[in-house]
Amino acid sequence: MLDPIVLFFLLGVLAGLSKSDLKIPAAIYEALSIYLLLAIGLKGGVELSRYPLGELLHSSAWVLAAGLAIPLIAYPVLRHLGRFGHHDAAAIAAHYGSVSVVTYSVAVAALGEAGIGHDGVMVIYLVLLEMPALLLGVVLARLGDAPAGGGGRLQALRQVHWGRLAHEVFLGKSILLLAGGLVIGYVAGEAGYAPIAPVFRDAFKGVLALFLLEMGLVAASRAGAFRTSGVFLLGFAIVMPLVAAAIGIATARQLGFSVGNAALLATLYASASYIAAPAAMRIAVPQANPALSIGASLGITFPFNLFVGIPIYLWMARTFIAG
Amino acid sequence: MLDPIVLFFLLGVLAGLSKSDLKIPAAIYEALSIYLLLAIGLKGGVELSRYPLGELLHSSAWVLAAGLAIPLIAYPVLRHLGRFGHHDAAAIAAHYGSVSVVTYSVAVAALGEAGIGHDGVMVIYLVLLEMPALLLGVVLARLGDAPAGGGGRLQALRQVHWGRLAHEVFLGKSILLLAGGLVIGYVAGEAGYAPIAPVFRDAFKGVLALFLLEMGLVAASRAGAFRTSGVFLLGFAIVMPLVAAAIGIATARQLGFSVGNAALLATLYASASYIAAPAAMRIAVPQANPALSIGASLGITFPFNLFVGIPIYLWMARTFIAG
Amino acid sequence: MLDPIVLFFLLGVLAGLSKSDLKIPAAIYEALSIYLLLAIGLKGGVELSRYPLGELLHSSAWVLAAGLAIPLIAYPVLRHLGRFGHHDAAAIAAHYGSVSVVTYSVAVAALGEAGIGHDGVMVIYLVLLEMPALLLGVVLARLGDAPAGGGGRLQALRQVHWGRLAHEVFLGKSILLLAGGLVIGYVAGEAGYAPIAPVFRDAFKGVLALFLLEMGLVAASRAGAFRTSGVFLLGFAIVMPLVAAAIGIATARQLGFSVGNAALLATLYASASYIAAPAAMRIAVPQANPALSIGASLGITFPFNLFVGIPIYLWMARTFIAG
Amino acid sequence: MARPAKLVTVYCEAVLEPLVIRELDRLGVVGYTVSDCRGRGQRGERGGQWRMSANVRIEVVCDPVTSERIAAALRPYEPDYGLLVVRGDVEVLN
Amino acid sequence: MARPAKLVTVYCEAVLEPLVIRELDRLGVVGYTVSDCRGRGQRGERGGQWRMSANVRIEVVCDPVTSERIAAALRPYEPDYGLLVVRGDVEVLN
Amino acid sequence: MARPAKLVTVYCEAVLEPLVIRELDRLGVVGYTVSDCRGRGQRGERGGQWRMSANVRIEVVCDPVTSERIAAALRPYEPDYGLLVVRGDVEVLN
Ligand SMILES: Nc1ncnc2c1ncn2[C@@H]1O[C@H](COP(=O)(O)O)[C@@H](O)[C@H]1O
Ligand SMILES: Nc1ncnc2c1ncn2[C@@H]1O[C@H](COP(=O)(O)O)[C@@H](O)[C@H]1O
Ligand SMILES: Nc1ncnc2c1ncn2[C@@H]1O[C@H](COP(=O)(O)O)[C@@H](O)[C@H]1O
Ligand code: NA
Ligand code: NA
Ligand code: NA
């Protein structure tokens, strides 16, 4: 049930840990991530045109609301069980509330491998879930800064540079490319998509393989940083995705999703961001130590989802969703 | 009639103007432009083998001669109506006399969209038109430097480093890759082209989309520079392409071109260079302000052609050329 | 019989020698070489699953042993006939003992062009032959450092940092990507390979063309360095591949290889490394002048093989191997 | 001809670049040069594999007073970001 | 061991690079180092998105007389091109 | 506030980078910054087209004693590799 594509990640990790001279230039990393975001957006946009928008609107509200539960669960757990400071707890919670484009793509590949269908519009949820958790993370961090009492809290929130934050989050390249691709795909439709499909559809999985190789190299470079962060974070980075996936399955069931869609929603909830979240949190909550949040999301949760999580979420969907 | 591919340009402009953190690395920009130039050359070369060369030679002389009218019209207009100095007038005239590979490619896509055929050998004209206008631009600039009287003029022209200029122009990467691709495509023929076609033909439009995204980012970074150059240049950057396109249609009619070929010739004439011309003019006429010529050609004329010009030129071809 | 793809190399050489402004960014060079190595490994791995491994093991021992004859012939020739110092002789011998991935790929294309089949598992030999010659080269260099007498020699070998050398050689990106691709391809099999095949199989030849363009640029930048190294090295760089190819044909005959496989083995033996070897030798035998070894392998032998060698090796295989 | 000046070099995380430029804007500093780099410091290795581990070097040629102001303006970023600010003496030759 | 020298740093438009190198050739300067960068100056922002807006930094370690000659050779380019030339004192350690 | 220090700049072949870093490790030097560059020197032009012709610039801000040690540690590489080590005076502003 494991797609062989995940082996590229392992190869990257091996190269990184063994200090091989294999290096993927930063310009290529940028190009690959731009491609993946655009390609996913485009595909979602093309499929959107065939979908009843009213139904989507209704589901979206639910998916968003349930999605925000994840950072709201993660924050107190990290703060009180994990004894992290409020900055770190908020930043990590934001990473886990947001989503991972690559994890989603590997799950789509795994569905294909297993012969299970899904709706392309699931990408909408990917776009929707990317950013609210980041805003919530900033709110949690600022509330933690505030002196006790409602007045102090309100003032703390007022001190956030909301404009700059919104800019950072909504005009970050992730949202811009995903949403931009969505709109272009919607406008282009099947006919307009066809001539660019050799690049944006047929090449997708091969490029994803190259990106996973690079992710492995990056994750390996994070191994050291993680070692310092202790056993609690390791456990959190494995248990949190499972809890989030369960929330995803419950939400999917509630909304009458198909097995494939349910598995993808579970995967989205379970995935942690490492493109949009790290950059946004570094600017908005600079007091948080990025080694912790990136170490957990990229160093543990990402490979866990790739190798163990996705098969579990697929099993969960098959078991708890009526075919 | 608008190809959805132009939306990628809009997305790039939006990202640039909103100061998003989306950046396409310079190395990728280079790679994409190398690819586009080579791919266009190759395609033209493959088609060249099926074409009567004698006829092509005859047309080429006409196309070149009519093409040189464009900078010769543009220069006095810019100099006297626009009150530009002779360096700036000459540099801008050179940009509009030369051609844009991407505009040409989008026009080819638009023809495809509209179900109108064209000859692949039109690429020959793209190659031919790229560089004479640049030489003419340098001549105009140097003549402007000269004291009054025929003797002064001759001496001014003698002072041009013709060797270095020819090197800059003929061995610039644009000509080298277009002409190189042409020769390789011609030698390879259909059979030799087939195994590289997945990269150079099937992927063309998708890569063009990515390049347009990048062009949008670059054009947005030019917006400020353009604001200073005033209303005259804005008008010039819109009217000049229309005039040039009319010359193109007339020339095409004269040569008995098909509707598709006529639309492409009009587009070539109407397009302004921003790969070969800026680099060559910067070296050969350093006194000219590049913000003006690049602002006009890339900031105004390029998007104008994409969104408004190409549909107009297509309409012109359909109206004035006998099907 | 010449594949038109080699014309891309000529175009690159032309651009380089004429000092055109065409530059392929280093990041793109890196990306292309990573792609080629991975793609070749993957393809070999997929084909490996259909092949009797026992037979392969037996052939491999022979292929390796015969392959090591090449540096052992090259070294004394360079040392005594060419009057090179032992460091340079050892480094050059190592380059010629190792193999060139691109030369191999062009030979595969030439076989396709000529309609001659071959086994994908030949890639195994490519992987196997890449590195032992490098180790041998280091041994030869160190033995040359040693004072006369067996004891001195042993001690010289003891002084080699074998661990670091093995790291450099086995975890260099060439071996890592080739071997990694091999394993992934083997595990994935045809079914797992199919979805990434548009990138790793269909695009292969087009990307190879782009890489050859870049190789031409690099080779041109080596032209000056080579001029100083004299006529002997020029002769060596042409005769050595022919001798090596002859050893390859003899070995292939001995092992009962098909015509296509024999031509590929001859090409592997005849090819000289310029990805793995230069980097490894620069670290392990720093006293050697890289201008000599790279000038010979990349400046002479590589184009010689492309344009003259491969057709000869193909002819040799056809003549001396029973169809 | 040669005019003495200070060369301030800021080594910092790539994500900090826009914030540093904003501080330069506030101080009215027009000229600067940025280049991409990687490195290591108190906060560990930053290998440049991706944006989160990339560094930049920002160079500003300016007068001594401005150089002090730049240093002061960047001080608040120090506790939270990888940052090194050094200053040397140069002459401007044009 | 340590030999005093001048470090001349030229910040300029990327298209100017071959012209600067040609001037160095004329002056008989063998050694130099070039790196790609972006920046801002009197002529606005040069963000490095494409070659026309890219900058380079050219560093030359040389003796004081040569440094003067380099500055003089580059002066003619100043009116037409984005260009900044600075000089500092260094010691060559090898 | 401003603390005097030395800025050691090592220009060398890209393949030498890991070896230089290893020497820094041995000397207990924590901080350094690396950037990619190209150039020309006694050993001809290194145009940066591929790794074998790429250069790097390694900068280390350190105290005078360490700067001497770095120079000494790199001396053995000099005969076999393209390498230039220079040192200048800077002040650390943070
Ligand atoms: N002593 C140093 N010399 C040169 N660069 C340094 C030094 N210390 C830090 N850096 C650079 O500044 C960045 C951030 O440093 P730090 O905050 O100490 O981790 C590093 O990644 C290096 O690029
Ligand atoms: N004061 C400065 N400090 C550092 N770099 C500068 C400065 N002024 C200009 N530059 C660099 O030189 C380039 C050209 O400058 P300019 O001609 O003033 O536009 C700029 O794009 C910057 O990279
Ligand atoms: N005088 C110099 N000024 C600046 N950089 C230099 C100088 N000499 C050498 N380099 C750099 O050091 C590298 C190796 O120099 P070399 O060993 O002399 O070939 C060159 O490729 C340049 O990048
Ligand atoms: Na999540
Ligand atoms: Na034109
Ligand atoms: Na060989």
From TrEMBL, chains A, B, C:
This protein's UniProt keywords: Membrane, Transmembrane, Transmembrane helix
Cited Pfam families: Sbt_1 (PF05982)
InterPro entries xrefs: Sbt_1 (IPR010293)
Membrane-spanning segments: 32-49, 61-78, 90-111, 123-144, 175-194, 206-225, 231-250, 262-285, 291-316
Entry annotated with the keyword Coiled coil: no
Tree of life domain: Bacteria
Official protein name in the record: Na+-dependent bicarbonate transporter superfamily protein
Organism of provenance: Tepidimonas sediminis
TrEMBL record, chains D, E, F:
Listed name of the protein: Membrane-associated protein
Alphabetical GO biological process terms: regulation of nitrogen utilization
MF term (GO), any: enzyme regulator activity
Gene3D superfamilies noted in UniProt: 3.30.70.120
InterPro entries noted in UniProt: N-reg_PII, N-reg_PII-like_a/b, N-reg_PII/ATP_PRibTrfase_C
UniProt cross-references to SUPFAM superfamilies, sorted A to Z: GlnB-like
Top-level taxon of the source organism: Bacteria
